[in-house]
Design brief:
Number of domains: 2
CATH superfamily of the largest domain: NE0471-like N-terminal domain
Strand content: 15-25%
Strand order of the largest sheet: 1-2-3
Structural class: alpha+beta
Shape: elongated
Radius of gyration: 17 Å
Number of strands: 6
CATH class of the largest domain: Alpha Beta
Length: about 140
């Protein structure tokens, strides 16, 4: 199975906003203005935020004094903020609808392996798959 996405490059766009190139080929923005609780409240200081770096392996973003955010959580936030489906959202959809990997694969007309990738976040979930999940759930509610 593929590993979760890594950060290939990061650019600061504004205070609390960065643009990230991912190993998935995606370029997504993240707005960290929601990180207001300590210890992340210091990110609102432009001088501190501007010291952001990608860690050596692309597994997260680092700041001085040991402050860091993991790539898995950053990727999830990026996709949420872009209106794209996320692994946790896909997992909750499967749980709400009592779907196994096999039954979700049958429902979506996909392989069990792709469903496993989507559920774990090791592959990005295409927007069309997220829309199909919503449509299937709405259809179940209507009946």
């Amino acid at each position: 199975m593929k590993t979760p996405p890594n950060i290939k490059n990061v650019r600061i766009v504004d205070t609390l906003i960065a643009e990230i190139d991912w190993s998935t080929g995606e370029t997504l923005r993240i707005d960290l203005s929601g990180c207001t609780a300590p210890p992340f409240d210091i990110l609102a200081e432009p001088d501190f935020f501007s010291q952001m770096t990608r860690d050596d392996w692309g597994h997260g973003l680092d700041w001085p004094n040991g402050l860091s955010l993991g790539a898995d959580r950053i990727y999830e936030l990026c996709r949420e903020q872009a209106g794209l489906p996320t692994a946790s959202e896909f997992d909750r959809w499967m749980q709400r609808n009592r779907l196994t990997l096999s039954s979700a694969a049958d429902t979506l007309g996909m392989t069990r392996r792709m469903i496993a990738h989507y559920r774990t976040g090791s592959r990005p979930i295409p927007k069309v798959v997220g829309l199909a999940c919503r449509a299937i759930e709405l259809e179940h509610i209507a009946h």
